[in-house]
Design goal:
Number of helices: 14
Strand content: 15-25%
Radius of gyration: 19 Å
Bound molecules: NADP nicotinamide-adenine-dinucleotide phosphate
Shape: globular
Strand order of the largest sheet: 3-2-1-4-5-6-17
CATH class of the largest domain: Alpha Beta
Structural class: alpha/beta
């Protein structure tokens, strides 16, 4: 395996989780960021890491063009802002992976498919827990079958939270996730209907699920990157993406539409971003032993298939996916174009990141 793997935002939570997963896969990461001291602290915890200091995303793009890493892993949100300059730089020198989890950013990177194919580069977006855990189940269940008519994906992350500030990147991703997405209001929810993105309430279509280990969880509609990935992986005209993190209570469903309507104002939005970034997150143990991705597919003849992917702590899985994607890209297993992770590498990717399918596939799924 040749070439360097750069992690933009190398001192952040996700950056460090990814760096820790690159090392056992035989790669020494290059941590890229704005603050030399924070980067040095982070690099001291990772075998063989070196650092590149670049004061802004534009400066990171310049360094990518100058030094030519083989793979760039972008963890700096909001990805609607950072993916365009970084993918432009990568198309000239190497492959690109990001942690985007909102519909706008995932769709934006997938829209570069032709440019990436022409340049002979791979762009992989949505390489975190939500997209990968749900899409992998859909890809496995669809193998060798015609397109289903209806798909629902559910993600149930179990995350340990360390105490600290929520931070700018995550705050901006939370506030800026849906603007520019077709098919509904700027801050309204989405689902696919008749093959097109259409309005749907955030927190709608609640479902009480029994996890394979017997625990009960409620999930409700939350239009994140997995909505787009599940539609593309299945070809189904009717798709909904739900999460245990969605506000499913009847009260929240009444309060949410006026609250999200306020975000249409850029002043309210920038205020919300600044306040959210300062929010102190309390330390919290993970709420359940496993995180889960689930898909339920229905075909025109009435056949229904349900499958689960069981993984451990969600943030750890989010560290493993970009690391495994980078390893496979460096080994020449990718192909030119823009993809979500399991669309490019199949269901075996999640297994290589510690995931287990339930029920186990009856035949090899790749
Ligand atoms: N897909 C998924 O499942 C998934 C999971 C987790 C996170 N995410 C996304 O990944 C992103 C990072 O999350 P995180 O928890 O790792 O956040 P974090 O701990 O705050 O780390 C963000 C990193 O980005 C850097 N950064 C922030 N704004 C920057 C800017 N304008 N220019 C250059 N560098 C900048 C920060 O550097 P400084 O130290 O210099 O501030 C930090 O290193 C978020 O957008 C989040 O939504 C996705």
């Amino acid at each position: 395996m040749g070439g360097e793997v750069w992690i933009l935002g190398g001192s952040g939570r996700s950056g460090q989780a990814i760096a820790a997963q690159l090392v056992p896969r035989g790669m020494a990461p290059v941590l890229v960021g704005r603050h030399a001291e924070r980067l040095d602290d982070a690099a001291a915890r990772v075998d063989g890491a070196r650092t590149v200091v670049a004061p802004s995303v534009e400066a990171m793009a310049d360094e990518i063009r100058r030094q030519g890493p083989a793979v760039v892993v972008n963890t700096v949100g909001p990805f609607t802002v950072t993916a365009p300059p970084i993918t432009r730089a990568c198309l000239a020198v190497g492959d690109y992976v990001d942690l985007a989890n909102d519909v706008a950013a995932v769709t934006g990177v997938l829209g570069l498919h032709e440019a990436a194919s022409d340049a002979g580069r791979s762009l992989v977006t949505g390489a975190g827990f939500g997209v990968t855990a749900t899409e992998s189940v859909v890809v496995g269940l669809c193998a060798g079958r015609p397109a289903p008519v209806r798909v629902r994906v559910d993600m149930v992350p179990s995350m340990e939270m360390a105490a600290g500030r929520l931070g700018e990147a995550l705050a901006a991703s939370l506030v800026e996730g849906l603007p520019g997405v077709e098919g509904g209001r700027r801050y309204g929810g989405r689902r696919y209907r008749d093959g097109r993105l259409a309005p749907a309430p955030i927190g709608g279509e609640p479902a009480r699920l029994v996890l394979p280990d017997g625990e009960r969880v409620t999930t409700a509609s939350l239009p994140l990157g997995e909505l787009v990935a599940a539609q593309r992986a299945s070809g189904a005209p009717d798709v909904v993406a739900a999460s245990s993190e969605a506000p499913a209570s009847p009260l929240m469903r009444v309060l949410l539409p006026p609250a999200t309507a306020l975000l249409a104002s850029s002043r309210v939005r920038s205020f919300a971003r600044r306040r959210l970034a300062q929010v102190q997150v309390k330390a919290r143990p993970r709420p359940r032993p496993h995180s889960w991705g689930r898909a339920r597919l229905e075909w025109a003849d009435g056949t229904v298939q349900e499958g689960w992917l069981r993984v451990g702590e969600a943030q750890e899985f989010t560290g493993a996916v970009p690391a495994e994607v980078a390893r496979r890209l460096l080994s020449g297993e990718g192909r030119p174009g823009a993809y979500t992770p399991a669309a490019l590498f199949g269901p075996s990717l999640a297994e290589a990141c510690g995931g287990t399918y339930l029920p186990a596939p009856a035949h090899p799924v790749d």
